[in-house]
Amino acid sequence: MRFPTLETHDLEGTPRTLPDDLPAGPRVILLPFQRWHQLLVDGWSREIDTLRRAHPDLTVWEVPALSSHYAVGRFFIDGGMRAGISDLNVRLHTLTAYVDLTELAVELELPSFDTVYVFLLSDAGEIIWRGSGVVDEAGTTSLAKALDGL
Q: Which of 30, 89, 111, 123 is deepest in the core (most CB within 10 A)?
């Protein structure tokens, strides 16, 4: 399954089309839907940072998915996120997507919007591995094996 095409902007305002505008190499996409999902994203991010030692070309992208109805408020929503993130690298790797959430759920076979989803993508944008929810040892080990298989 290929990751769907999403029109996004990083928190510095640069547009990016996913997955095609991402750099080559293994890419992890963290896909949260609600503000409280940031706790789950942070947990996954810490574990993924340890995997970078063995995979220095691994890039991580947080892609908050919001309903397209909120697109009119993009300036204020993205601005609020930008103001809360002092690290430029994090702002450049946070790509907001204002999308039809129902369509996205169908394309990615997501059962709900109640948790964060994690995807490992190939250079071609194919989903190689997927996880969700709270990071745990089994999820981290499974992701590490998928990365080792690339």
A: 30
For the domain with range 6-148, which CATH number is right: 3.30.420.40, 3.40.30.10, 3.40.50.280, 3.30.930.10?
Answer: 3.40.30.10
Q: How far apart are CA 120 and CA 60, in angstroms?
A: 9
Give tens-digit pLDDT for 38-85: 999 999 999 999 999 999 999 999 999 999 988 888 888 888 888 888
Q: How far apart are the first and last CA of the chain?
A: 16
Indicate the helix (H) or strand (E) that contains 132: strand 127-132
Residues 9-34 have pLDDT tens digits of 999 999 999 999 999 999 999 999 99
Cβ(27)–Cβ(57) below 8 Å: no
Cα–Cα distance measured from residue 76 to residue 78, given in angstroms and rounded to the nearest whole number: 6
Q: Dig out the tokens for 90 from the structure.
A: 């994090």
